Amino acid sequence: MATQKYKTETLKCWNKAKEIRMNFYKKYVDAHDNGGLRWAGGAWSFGAIPAGLGNDIFPITGEPYGASIAFNKEFSLRCLEATERKGYARDLCSYMRSYWGSIILDEFLFGGKFPKPDFMWQDHICCSHAKWYQVANELEGGGIPTYSIDVAVGPYQDVTDNKIDYIVNQMHDGITWLEKITGRRYNDELLIEAVNQECRATSLWAEICALNKGIPAALDEKSMYSLYVLGTLEKHSKVVADFYAELLDEMKYRVENQIAATPNERCRLMSDTQPPWGFLNVFRYLEQFGAVSVGSLYTFGLIGVWEDKPDGSWGPRETPQQKGIEIKTRDQALRILTDWNLSKPEWQHFYSPHIKSDMMIRIAKEWHLDGIMLHYNRGCEGLSLGIAENRLALIEAGYPVMTFEGNMGDEREFDEAKTMSRIDSFMETLGMKNIV
Amino acid sequence: MYKVGIDVGAKNIKIVVMKDGEVIAKDQCLAGFETKENTLSLYQKILESANISESDVSKITATGSGKKAAYFAQNSITEVTAAAKGATSLYPSAHSIIDVGAEEGKSIRCDGNGKIVDFALNEKCAAGAGAFIESMGRALELPIEQFGELSMQSDKEIPMNAQCAVFAESEVVSLMHAKTEKKDIAKAVNDAVASRITSMTRKVGFEKDIVLIGGMAKNTGFVQALKKGLETDIILAKDPEYISAIGAAIYND
Amino acid sequence: MITQFRDWEQNRHTYAKAWKEKTGGKVMGYFCTYVPEEILYAANILPVRILGSHEPHDVTEAHIFGMFCPFCRDCLAQGLKGKYNYLDGVMISQSCLHIRQAYTSWIKHVPIDFSYYLPMPNNIQSTHAVKYLAGELAQFKVAVEKWIGKELTDEDIKHGIEIMNENRGLMQQLYSYKKNENPLISGEETMEVAISEQMVDKREHTPVLKELIDKIAGGAGSKNNGTRLMVLGSEDDDIAFIRMVESVGATVVTDDHCVGTRYFWNNVENNDDYLEAIARRYCERPACPSKDWIERSRIPHILSLAKDFDVKGAIVIQQKFCDPHELDIPAIIKALNAIDVKTLFLEFDVTVPLGQFKIRVEAFLEMLQEDDLF
Fold it and tell me: B1-91+241-253: what CATH class?
């Protein structure tokens, strides 16, 4: 098979992404220095709401913090073991166990003691999410005000006013609660600004991912991880939305100039669920076969918000601003925020693996894939939910599927040699030879 | 010219020498700690006993989880491809290949032309493989050769949990404490392993003909349980432990 | 004393098929005890809880990843194997992610006439949960009406509530006799009654239950004088396990299980708005851990059970990989130990190694008896 060589270039905005990420943690740690507040919660939580308390409110989101811990194998193991010593089961969410371990050890990954939050603001997407912070509060010795919003109202296609009302009512109560526990007066202008920025950032991310439909892929999934993460940190912030706007321009440039992520792209794949973070070399290994993972429902749809476009393709959801909607009231902002988040692709599979399978098959078609690698992720019951049904549906749709077991944040559950050998077999079945 | 296939498995090394599609010589030995040395000496031993000089060997292909130990091979292929290649070359009607060795069970589905459509391997636990039977054999003080035969004498259905080897072992201990007959325990163990393999095979999907390869094909009790689990007949490969080595030898022919 | 209940439990499929034949009614399989059976009874539909078989199976590997609990896989296996081929509908009321998969795979791979996913709120501590659930119940009622081709009147719903309330009330009464010294009904027997009430027409179950209570009230039955234990944790309908525990000198006097007290602990209170009354009952019943946040309401409830039933020890059981219970168990064990109730933790799978568990239970009982000596 002839190998086509493409040009490659490193991303110009790469360092800026790293800077924003580190600055996020720094701002959280330093919040108290200038009278600001810290809050802890999940990457899925409605962060735009606490933003209404002022411009000096800084979050730390649990899942990306857990993923960061997984990169540091020594610290990761200490965290996991500390949690196990407290009697918590080894098969619970590994982000959560890492996060708890960091509290128990009272060590922050980026140095110093674990910076205690002033309040916890979470939403409940899986069995663990609200309980994550219930336990986190207990491990902190109790007394940290904690609020969690239930979003489990079913898939977006079945949404009704009753369902939206339930979430919006919890949000209204949440704002009253925030005022009470912080003693601050809530600023609706700041909320509206944050909601607008969140819609902008998450739509932009979808637009960036949609550009990866092109051949060669301008971004590989390994790089995407370092970029989408900003949305998991602070999807409602202007800094993140502005960064995605800049990245979008660079993507357009790369697509126009046929600049590839992998110089020898000849086999396009997607993955699913969070990768085993300590072993991203899996993706580098694929490159030896000229294979590139161009994304996944996870990287596209955890932060990206999508919709059907008039031409039948999948593309970024049009934001309220783009539609000319001006948000004027708190209630309107909360309703838009709810509707926007409920339409997020990664939210649908909690209710039906079949909806997820349809989205995956759609990606496989529109992104021109040759095969799929499913990470059966023991670290996350939420995103591994229904994955076996996804496998069946993808095979039925005619796509070769490889599965490998692992864990996003507990390296004790990942067998590197076995996974690489399984990739070898998968590549052989796809007719791909090692070209390095 | 001769072609050689070397299959370095978790427990044994199997080597075949082939000429014009026929097996001229074959042998096996324990992989042991010094796997590299053992692989080379087995290779040399086979050539010597078959009276073949190294220069008459045109190609050596290695496979198996320890294939790197066959450092003198020119090529290597994965054990999935080797198993499929070997089985479909000997049994062209094969659409499903089940390979159960010492520490790994795999299930492979092929189209009618030997091309792999899908495959699955057991994950970290060896409850679905031969090593588990061996350790249960030790617990029952039952030589492995007799394990299958004895289990065939039982008609009891004792449910066992085969999700985890350790958990299953504790169940065997419970059964021993409860004075369950040895043959019934042996059957329960074979049923449990077969259930694990059936489960994996159902995941991949199967179609006739089904060919069973790997050392476990010699355990009659396991084979019976597997047939029952899949509710269909299974072709037992001749010299089942050598099929992957054969697949390696003829790869790219 | 419990022959009829045991017969129902052991021949559940035969019973349901016969019920269908006899009444010509529809049978609904349900996956979680948050399903509002009141509405099903109102529609003259027989609700049957789908449970596992405690037999190893090899049919779910393709459908549910092995990191999810054995119970959800065992339930799905029953569907894939055609054991519930008499069902006209299946439904789930939202609780944990694990059992949800049994439902989603079932509706795809087992032919069925009607299916329904009821998005029961998880934030039952929110003041908005009841109103939201009432709205969802209204939507569910419409779906049922469409299915059976008949409108459900307030009178029908009221009737459904009465059927459920009466049975639940009697179960509460039965359990109250377990507070007595040397109760006249064992844990194994209670479990037979509790399992059967989840699959038998309550209108048949209730009179037999009344008879049982009358007998116990009249002093019939043999005394159970073992060490008083409670069992709590994940779904547990493992009769063989309870039998073993009681065979070595324990009496299981109460539980916090969804096959057990959580199912019948509270009734629907009178209210003109029937759907809201039902919604309130399900939001206020003893919580499943997947809904027990941000406050831990389960702990005071479990502690009061332990005190009211005067238990000496608790067996905390957990279905392997059951995340919601894994998130509660350390806190519950701590709270029980703090009031001097010792605990034994056991992990359940489709089958449990009775021999191994027996040694642990015996050792646990010896430990509790030593406490009594000193």
Answer: alpha beta
- Give dist(CA A87, CA A93) in Å, integer: 14
Q: Is the pTM of this model over 0.90?
A: yes
Question: Touching check for B196 and chain C: CB below 8 Å?
Answer: yes
**Cα(B86)–Cα(A291) distance, integer angstroms:** 27
Question: What residues contact A415, with CB distance under 8 A and at least 6 apart?
Answer: A405, A406, B124
Residue C209 DSSP code: H
Concatenating the DSSP letter of every residue in A67-131 gives HHHHHSHHHHHHHHHHHHHTT--TTS-HHHHHHHHHHHHT--TTSSS----SEEEEEE-SSSHHH
Q: What letter would DSSP give residue A2?
A: P
Distance CA C349, CA C238 (A): 10
Is the complex ipTM higher than 0.90? yes
3-class SS of residue B49: helix
Residue B125 dihedral angles phi and psi, to the nearest 5°: -95, 140
Q: Which chains touch B (3 or more CB pairs under 8 A)?
A: A, C
Which residues on chain B are in Cβ contact (under 8 Å) with A388?
203
Fold agreement (B1-91+241-253, B93-236)? yes
pLDDT (tens, 9 = 90+) of chain C, 374 residues, equals 899 999 999 999 999 999 999 999 999 999 999 999 999 999 999 999 999 999 888 899 999 999 999 999 999 999 999 999 999 999 999 999 999 999 999 999 999 999 999 999 999 999 999 999 999 999 999 999 999 999 999 999 999 999 999 999 999 999 999 999 999 999 999 999 999 999 999 999 999 999 999 999 999 989 999 999 999 999 999 999 999 999 999 999 999 999 999 999 999 998 889 999 999 999 999 999 999 999 999 999 999 999 999 999 999 999 999 999 999 999 999 999 999 999 999 999 888 878 778 888 998 999 898 776 66
Rounded-to-integer distance, Cα A399 and Cα A403, Å: 13
CATH topology of domain B93-236: Nucleotidyltransferase; domain 5 (3.30.420)
Per-residue tokens: A114:
């674990």
Measured over all CA atoms, what is the biggest interatomic distance in chain C, rounded to whole angstroms? 67
Number of H helices, E strands in chain A: 17, 12
Domain ranges in chain B are 1-91+241-253, 93-236
User: CB distance from A390 to chain C under 8 Å?
Assistant: no
| Exposure b/e, B30-49, CB count within 10 A at least 16 = b | ebeeebeebbbebbeebbee
CA distances from A94 to A212, B35, B134, B206, C60 (A): 30, 37, 34, 35, 25
Question: Which chain A residues are Cβ-neighbours of B80 within 8 angstroms?
Answer: 425, 428-429
Radius of gyration, alpha carbons of chain C: 20
Going by C-alpha positions, the residue among A60, A214, A239 that lies closest to residue A133 is: A60
Instruction: Render C275-342 in DSSP notation, one character per residue.
Output: HHHHHHHHHHSSPPGGG--SS--HHHHHHHHHHHTT-SEEEEEEETT-HHHHTTHHHHHHHHHHTT-E
CA distances for A326 relative to A50, A193, A241, A360, angstroms: 21, 11, 18, 34
- Burial (CB count <10 Å: 0-12, 13-18, 19+), residue B210: buried
**Of the candidates B62, B112, B28, B107, the residue with the CA atom closest to the CA atom of residue B247:** B62
- Give the whole-angstrom CA distance, residue A132 versus residue B199: 34
- How far is C263 from A128, CA to CA, in rounded Å? 23
Kindly determine whether residue A131 and residue C68, on different chains, have CB atoms separated by under 8 Å.
no
Residues B174, C55: C-beta atoms closer than 8 Å: no
Crossing angle for the helix pair B79-90 and A416-429, to the nearest 10 degrees: 40
Q: Could you tell me whether strands B105-110 and B96-100 are parallel, antiparallel, or unpaired per DSSP bridges?
A: antiparallel
- Which of B94, B70, B65, B92 is CA-nearest to residue B80? B65
Residues 78-137 of A with CB under 8 A from C: 86-89, 91-93, 124, 126-128, 130-131, 133-135
Which member of C54, C350, C354 has the closest CB to residue B174? C354
